[in-house]
Amino acid sequence: MALPGLLLVNLGTPEAPRTSEVRRYLRGFLSDPRVIDIPAPLRWLLLNLFILPFRPQRSAEAYAKVWTDRGSPLLVNSLDLAAKVRQRLEGVARVEVAMRYGEPSIPRALDALRRDGVERIVAFPLYPQTSSAATTSSIEAVQRAAASYADPPELHFVPPFFADPRYVTCFAENAAPALREVDPEIVFFSFHGLPERQIKKSDPSGGFCLSRPDCCERASAGEHPAVLAACYRAQCVTTARLLADALGVPSERRLVCFQSRLGRTPWIQPFTDVEVRAAARRGVKRAVIIVPSFVADCLETLEEIGIRAAANWRANGGETLRLVPALNADDEWAGAVVGIARDASPWLAAGAG
């Protein structure tokens, strides 16, 4: 039987840091009803009257600040990770990278696997915490692309890994040097934000999520397993708790916050930019910021945090704000990816290491 395939899926990136390419990328991304989950006519109006006329130029300028000689940081880091995973799975599985939006697209990556004779594919969405906008959208895109073949491949999906000890350990080892060097007065755990309505839609209880200030802490502590399995914010809180414990960060020095909000609709709080500014203004001088929802450095880590948040910190009286790099193509992380994927599917079990 032919080798199985492992498809590493990340969110996506424009092909160049220019307005036209960024506009094309944003149109595809923000047209997804799982990303902007409002009625289609309202989504069209919002996108074409308020977002696309203005945001692509600003975003292109931001991308230009972090673009590399090899291209987008997200794509470069994803390709480098795939190369190391491919080495570890030589003779066990074919490995490809796909972006939910942009290139290499999911259909193109599946075509490459099919040309190699792959009939069984393990899809690994590289999002530690689950969300409809990223995880479910990517799963649906893989399913649609697979269904387009006359003889569709079998599919298996790696579940979210927000509490996997290997992922937590890799991020803790990544962050430990920064904590030793900075001796931070506060550690920010910054996750990508989501609209509150998406959190409430994912609530299997129908009324627990965002019903009280400590709802996520209660779900994380095991009081509501069904909520924890579905709630992005509760999974973020869990990741931050496990990571802070692994790093020995005391509770009074840890702060979970959320970045990258868009528009005026209510988004989950507290907001990273607001908390960074507030901490600097009350006299905090040294801080570290960890971004555990991003396994690959990208615009949101390098520009939004590494440049803008750092400038915000200094402008308000702070001195050191150290960004911990994402896992990228770290050797230990590559091994963890193999282990997590292997545990999720018996197709990859034999010989992987």
Write the layout of secondary structure elements.
Elements: E1 5-12, H1 19-30, H2 40-51, H3 55-66, H4 73-88, E2 94-101, H5 106-115, E3 120-125, H6 132-147, E4 154-157, H7 165-182, E5 186-192, H8 196-201, H9 215-220, H10 225-230, H11 232-247, E6 254-259, H12 272-281, E7 286-290, H13 299-315, E8 320-323, H14 331-344
Description:
α13 links the parallel β7 (286-290) and β8 (320-323). The chain contains 14 helices and 8 strands. The protein has 353 residues and is of the alpha/beta class. Strands 2-1-3-4 form a 4-stranded parallel beta sheet, sandwiched between helices. Strands 6-5-7-8 form a 4-stranded parallel beta sheet, with helices on both faces. The radius of gyration is 20 Å and the shape is globular.
Seen as an oligomer or otherwise, the chain set is: single chain
User: How much helical structure, as a percent, in the residues?
Assistant: 40-55%
Give unreliable regions as ranges.
none
Going by helix content, strand content and strand pairing, the class is alpha/beta
Name the beta content range. 5-15%
Q: What is the count of DSSP helices, taking H or I runs of 4+ residues? A: 14
Mean pLDDT: 96
In short:
The protein is of the alpha/beta class and 353 residues long. The protein is 48% helix and 14% strand. Helix 3 (55-66) crosses helix 13 (299-315).
